[in-house]
Sequence to fold (224 residues):
Amino acid sequence: MIQQLFNSDSFLPERLSMIEGQLRRRGIRDENLLRAMSEVPRHEFIPEAYWKQAYEDRPVPIGEGQTISQPYIVAAMIAALQVGTEDTVLEIGTGTGYQAALLARLGKQVFTVERHAALADEAKRLFQKLGYGNITAVTGDGSHGLPEHAPYDRIIVAAAAPSIPEPLLQQLGEGGRMIIPVGSSDIQVLQLARKSGGEIFTSSLEGCRFVPLVGEGGFKPRNF
Fold:
């Protein structure tokens, strides 16, 4: 199914241009990731009205006040995770599922949590349409993680939090890596957390701006 869609995809030239002009040019060198981003049809994960913008270097609205991040940020975050073929990945902030689809091509199993039921339902529809059978999508408070399937080898959070939620740190497996935007509602920094010997080590990567992670371990709805 996936290969059939790929072969008939009229957006392939735009996708390849995105790879060369936006990703390689800015230092993304993970060939497995670049291959995944050349194959996953990003336009399928945004409203058709925005298809002409699907492969431009910008975020795109997807409804419910949410956006799909610009391709470079998606690539930079996933590259920092260093996802292996046997890794189980937890994603917080499914949106319509683009990032989860990329992770599914790189890892073994993806669990993804979305706060907005309408977006989670759309993601499930797209996963089925495009043939991604190794993704489990649920609706809930992403700041709680998904403890029933923990521990996770990799965790990626596509929404900003004032600090790293403790449940996510607890659900990160030994030797695991997590990336999350941390900061205020206006500006954040991508933080990479690594667990080694039961301890958490964090480092800052680059500045960014994400929609808020709303929930018990994130920002409160009244603050936005």
